[in-house]
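Whiteboard transcription, Tuesday session. T.W. wrote the structure tokens on the left side:
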């Protein structure tokens, strides 16, 4: 899919439709030519003949007899649809120009793409295909996908996706993990080098995208897929065993979910509960604001499926750019620093109260706890708790059942919250470290910007100090603390976190077996020794490679990211 959301599937036309399809192609060429001629004349008049020559060149390419013959051959002989023939042929032309690097002709590739787009617009017209109605398996290759577009991908047909933009900490990547489909984000430009119907390998483990792989590469990947399947089946056998370290220390292994159906992924893998339910996806997946009933149904489904195990429902963590039901803010230049998350909830109380009512009603059905995101100041936490108390009173007045003692917790994901953590622990029942944002705000690195992705590192000593402070403060007060940021799903950091005293991990469900496997190979004294070594190191690179090495040494067969 390009910027305009075009999808060009490899389609074939039946033998008796060939003449009609050729006629459709000719009509589109004529319409596109008329459009270009119109542009040429307008530009000539306003800006002069010299600039108009660009459009003259487009016209010449479009009306070139060789191009027409080539397209006809593809449609007549190979029965390709005109759309597919146009996309394939013109992309091949563009690539030929791009290969003339350093020459002025290389820039002509842009013109070719322009012509391709124009022709496709005419050919596809209203029949333009999005990814909403898929009928066969595809890979989605796109410039960018928003979290809500990703959330709406059809899990049955989308076998993987790749985006040119974004970073591994972005919600788009997080949703890919929830959907359990391979994905690579933030590759940089590559879409010009592919067209529909080509063979592509998406290697989500290594972050690689291989266009037109050769036989050897394909064979290697097929083998790897088989191996992964065998390992997954082997690890699956751990699902009924408790998460214990080799020296028998019990660790809670919870799951992070974005959609209610994922609760099954948690149950299947033997999760000890749900440590983070990102409820904002209820809003992102729908055109209208979800009603209290929609909220309630989602939360009760999760709570009931977990059958008495704890479920932490986080109130919505929407960014200003991600709320279709409210007017967009006037001037939001730094959405990460703007009206997002709990700030937005406290500003739009009726939205917030609707969700709180549903959460409270679901609390009567099982072991539910509530958590507020992005808490930065004590005042904010107190305000959120006051709104909750107010909604409780309301329910009570109307005789609606709920758990008055439901545990109330907060995310620790802003450095300010860590600096004040000794005060916060006095006012909450539990804490959850959100490293995805904590890293972003500590290191001043946008988690979804591919240009600074190399600076976004959980192993940075500044981040590790903040995590240590939070775990220690919680320990002193006896307040339970878990980590639900992606760092906890990465086996590279398991020893370090256990060594720091973390005894609750909330991870992406697919990582549960692997992390449990790591626990079973390590002891607490070994993990403490790891912390000791790391505390003398000064940069993320050294820490990262030391941790990888340790993992490899203790847990054979694991050692990657
Ligand atoms: C985090 O910031 O680490 C977190 C778990 O929340 P989210 O990724 O939804 O921002
Ligand atoms: Mg966060």
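and on the right, the sequence the group agreed on:
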């Amino acid at each position: 899919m390009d910027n305009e959301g075009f999808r060009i599937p490899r389609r074939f036309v039946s033998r008796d439709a060939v003449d009609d399809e050729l006629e459709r192609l000719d009509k589109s060429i004529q319409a596109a030519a008329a459009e270009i001629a119109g542009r040429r004349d307008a530009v000539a008049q306003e800006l002069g003949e010299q600039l108009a020559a660009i459009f003259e060149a487009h016209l010449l390419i479009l009306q070139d007899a060789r191009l027409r013959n080539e397209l006809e051959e593809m449609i007549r002989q190979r029965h390709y649809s005109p759309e597919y023939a146009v996309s394939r042929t013109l992309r091949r032309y563009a690539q030929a120009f791009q290969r003339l690097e350093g020459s002025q002709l290389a820039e002509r590739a842009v013109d070719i793409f322009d012509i391709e787009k124009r022709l496709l617009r005419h050919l596809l017209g209203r029949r333009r295909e999005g990814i909403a109605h898929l009928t066969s398996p595809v890979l989605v290759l796109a410039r960018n996908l928003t979290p809500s577009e990703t959330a709406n991908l059809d899990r049955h047909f989308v076998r993987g996706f790749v985006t040119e933009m974004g970073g591994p900490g972005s919600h788009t990547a997080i949703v890919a993990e929830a959907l359990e489909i391979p994905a690579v984000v933030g590759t940089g430009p590559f879409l010009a080098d592919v067209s529909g119907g080509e063979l592509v390998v998406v290697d989500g483990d290594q972050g690689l995208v291989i266009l037109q792989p050769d036989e050897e590469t394909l064979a290697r990947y097929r083998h790897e897929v088989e191996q992964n399947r065998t390992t997954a089946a082997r690890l699956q056998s751990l699902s009924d065993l408790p998460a214990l370290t080799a020296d028998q220390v019990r660790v809670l292994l919870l799951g992070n979910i974005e959609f209610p159906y994922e609760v099954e992924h948690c149950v299947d893998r033997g999760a000890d509960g749900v440590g983070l339910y990102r409820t904002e996806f209820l809003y992102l997946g729908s055109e209208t604001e979800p009603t209290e009933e929609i909220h309630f149904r989602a939360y009760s489904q999760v709570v009931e499926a977990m059958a008495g195990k704890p479920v932490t429902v986080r109130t919505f963590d929407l960014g200003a750019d991600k709320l279709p039901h409210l007017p967009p803010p006037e001037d939001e230049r730094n959405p990460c620093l703007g009206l997002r998350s709990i700030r937005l909830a406290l500003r739009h109380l009726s939205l917030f109260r609707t969700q709180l009512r549903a959460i409270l009603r679901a609390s009567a059905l099982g072991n539910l706890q509530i958590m507020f995101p992005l808490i930065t100041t004590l005042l904010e936490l107190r305000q959120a708790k006051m709104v909750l108390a107010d909604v409780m009173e309301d329910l009570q007045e109307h005789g609606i059942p709920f758990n008055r003692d439901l545990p109330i917790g907060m995310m620790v994901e802003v450095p300010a919250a860590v600096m004040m953590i000794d005060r916060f622990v006095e006012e909450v029942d539990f804490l959850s470290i959100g490293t995805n944002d904590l890293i972003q705000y500590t290191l001043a690195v946008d988690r979804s910007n591919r240009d600074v992705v190399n600076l976004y590192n959980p192993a940075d000593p500044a981040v590790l100090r903040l995590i240590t402070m939070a775990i220690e403060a919680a320990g002193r007060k006896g307040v339970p603390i878990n980590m639900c940021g992606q760092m906890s799903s990465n086996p590279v950091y398991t020893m370090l976190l256990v060594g720091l005293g973390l005894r609750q991990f909330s991870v992406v469900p697919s990582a549960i077996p692997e992390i449990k496997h790591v626990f079973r190979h390590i002891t607490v004294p070994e993990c403490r020794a790891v912390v000791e070594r790391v505390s003398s190191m000064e940069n993320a690179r050294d820490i990262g490679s030391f941790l990888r090495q340790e993992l490899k040494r203790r847990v054979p067969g694991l050692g990657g990211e």
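Someone added at the bottom: The CA atoms of residues 392 and 404 lie 7 Å apart.
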